[in-house]
Amino acid sequence: MEEHAEHILIHGHVFKWEEKAPFVPCGVSIQGAIEYRPKTDEMRCHECGEWFSNLGSHVRVHDVSVATYKLTHGLVVRTNLTSQATRIKYRANIERQGSRERRINNLKACVKTGNRQKRVDFETRNARNKCNAQMLFTIKRFILANGRNPVIRELKDIGLHSTDLSKAFNGAKLDDIYVMASGSGEEL
Ligand SMILES: [Zn+2]
């Protein structure tokens, strides 16, 4: 992966990379966020690493649908892959669409990409500093500061819950997660 962007998009909001780092790598980019260049209003493709103002129409060259692309890279269905500027141009058209029609279209998109309830929402996790990489980073910081693993009560103090952790790491035991955290490559 070449040097990362200075900005990222999560749920359509622009953040500095450092605000939400570290990230879980995904394709040639990151999971649950889109690398973004505000100056040129371009988004980085997770598949090829090139930059596009209309990522949505570009991803088809990789033989994937927009829905599959979002699912693969941890983006939520409603996340827009069209540039901010292009979006303004099309907003008028979208607003002319009836709200019922819009709801049905949203529903169709959800059905296509599977059960929305069960799907892991990596964008929301990044927004809340709860992606796997961020959680490991938080644990590592505790271990380095205290010279030992946190007990359950202390996990809560640093904003983590053992059940969330276990779920995020496919049912892994806490001890194994701590080993993973100690060895995680993120610099402090
Ligand atoms: Zn691409």
Strand order of the largest sheet: 2-1-5-6-7
Q: How many β-strands, per DSSP?
A: 7
Small molecules held by this entry:
zinc ion
Shape: elongated
Order of helical and strand elements: EEHEEEEEHHHHHHHHH
- Largest pleated sheet: 5 strands, antiparallel
β-sheet strand percentage: 5-15%
> Which structural class best describes the helix and strand composition?
alpha+beta
Q: Give the domain tally.
A: 2
Number of helices: 10
Which residues form runs of ≥5 with pLDDT under 50? none
What would the average pLDDT be, to the nearest integer?
81
The gyration radius over C-alpha positions equals 18 Å
How would you describe this protein?
This protein has 188 residues and is of the alpha+beta class. The chain has two domains: 7-86, no CATH class; 129-183. It contains ten helices and seven strands. The chain has helices at 17-20, 55-58, 66-72, 84-96, 99-112, 122-127, 132-146, 152-157, 162-168, 174-183, and strands at 7-10, 13-16, 25-26, 29-30, 34-37, 42-44, 51-52. Helix 7 crosses helix 10. The longest helix has 15 residues, at 132-146. The mean pLDDT is 81. Zinc ion binds at residues 45, 47-48, 50, 58, 62.
